[in-house]
Amino acid sequence: MGFFEKLGFGLKKTRKASFDSITELMDAPKITEDLYEELTERLILADTGADVAEELVDELRDVVKKNKLKTGAEALDALKELLCTRLSADGPMDLSGHPAVILVIGVNGVGKTTSIAKLANLYKAQGKKVLLAAGDTFRAAATEQLCTWAARVDVPVVKAGEGADPAAVIFDAVTSAAARGSDIVICDTAGRLHNKKHLMDELSKVRRVVNKANAAASVESLLVLDAVTGQNAIHQAAEFIEAAGATGIILTKLDGTAKGGSVISIKTKLGLPVRYVGVGEGVDDLMEFNARDFAEALFKKDEE
Ligand SMILES: Nc1nc2c(ncn2[C@@H]2O[C@H](COP(=O)(O)OP(=O)(O)OP(=O)(O)O)[C@@H](O)[C@H]2O)c(=O)[nH]1
Ligand SMILES: [Mg+2]
Fold first, then answer.
1. Cα separation, 226 vs 228, whole angstroms
2. Are 238 and 278 in contact (CB under 8 A)?
């Protein structure tokens, strides 16, 4: 499966449940007030959030007026463009450090460990030397799970025993990266609830320890959100942003949900760029997020 097909496949449920109906609506020969109203409703049903849907339609009205657009199809193209602007990141991820460190954080079961394996696979395919840090020391099985994935992808892991200080494991990994010649260190962390203050403080410590281990390291903290929870995922995010300085989002399990439209409200409300999306359980099922491809894929017509 090619890149675009895979993304299209991952968004199939989302299209079926909502975006197909928007594509159909925009087949209209003329742009009328009813069309705008119906579009707003369908965007809300598509899990974009009511306020975001209204903002988008207001923006669309302006573009239609300014460019004297006439048909629904022209308006749909303009809508895709607006979505693309809204979903675009201001710049690329900061992987400039030596090493580049990526902390992977989020609540329980959202797909952190699996995404780390997928990321390792992606970066390795780009010719980068990857090192993993088994920072989920909360349960023994977590380190085992990461090691199993690491063996499959063939990348090394720095680990410690159950109950070890996660900050210490990550410190070791970042320190040893220089000697090993690793380009990227990807750090697993235990799932935690955003309202558990001591666990959030632990993440702050993990974040701080990276530059103590190596001042030349760059740090990205990617917050993993489960697309199945849709917009509710937004409520977890504020504490993670505050405690661990989250810099971007990995949105997992898009393939398993009709709520793919929530990516629009997630990006708008959190102001954090979506960097990767998960579209399956396999090691190849993580895609670098591209706003234009995503906007196109939401409205792609199925060929069956
Ligand atoms: N369908 C689908 N399943 C996914 C995706 N990402 C992760 N999963 C599944 O989600 C489940 C949980 O994944 P983990 O990676 O263990 O989640 P975690 O956040 O590390 O969990 P904890 O360490 O317990 O907090 C596994 O069964 C994964 O296969 C995805 O993009 N699509
Ligand atoms: Mg895990």
1. 5
2. no
Cβ(110) – ligand 1 distance below 6 Å: yes
CA–CA separation, 298 and 261 (whole Å): 8
- Specify the residue with its C-alpha closest to ligand 1, atom 26: 111
Cβ of residue 114 lying under 6 Å from some atom of ligand 1: yes
By three-state DSSP, how is residue 137 classified? coil
* Ligand 1 atom closest to the CA of 142, numbered from 1: 23
Question: What domains, with CATH codes, occur in the chain?
Answer: 3-87 (1.20.120.140), 100-246 (3.40.50.300)
Intra-chain end-to-end CA distance of the chain, in Å:
16
Q: Which ligand is nearest to the CA of 192?
A: 1
Verify whether ligand 1 is closer than 6 Å to residue 10 (CB atom): no
Q: d(Cα 236, Cα 116) in Å, to the nearest integer?
A: 20
Q: What is the pLDDT of residues 69-96, one digit of tens each?
A: 999 999 999 999 999 999 999 999 999 9
Sites in the chain below the pLDDT cut of 70: 303-304
Peptide bond into 156 cis (omega under 30): no
What's the pTM value of the predicted model, to 2 decimals?
Answer: 0.95
CA-nearest residue for atom 7, ligand 1, is 111
Buried b (16+ CB within 10 A) or exposed e, 111-138: bbbbbbbbbbbbbbeeebbbbbbbbbbb
Residues 161-182: pLDDT tens digits? Answer: 888 999 999 999 999 999 999 9
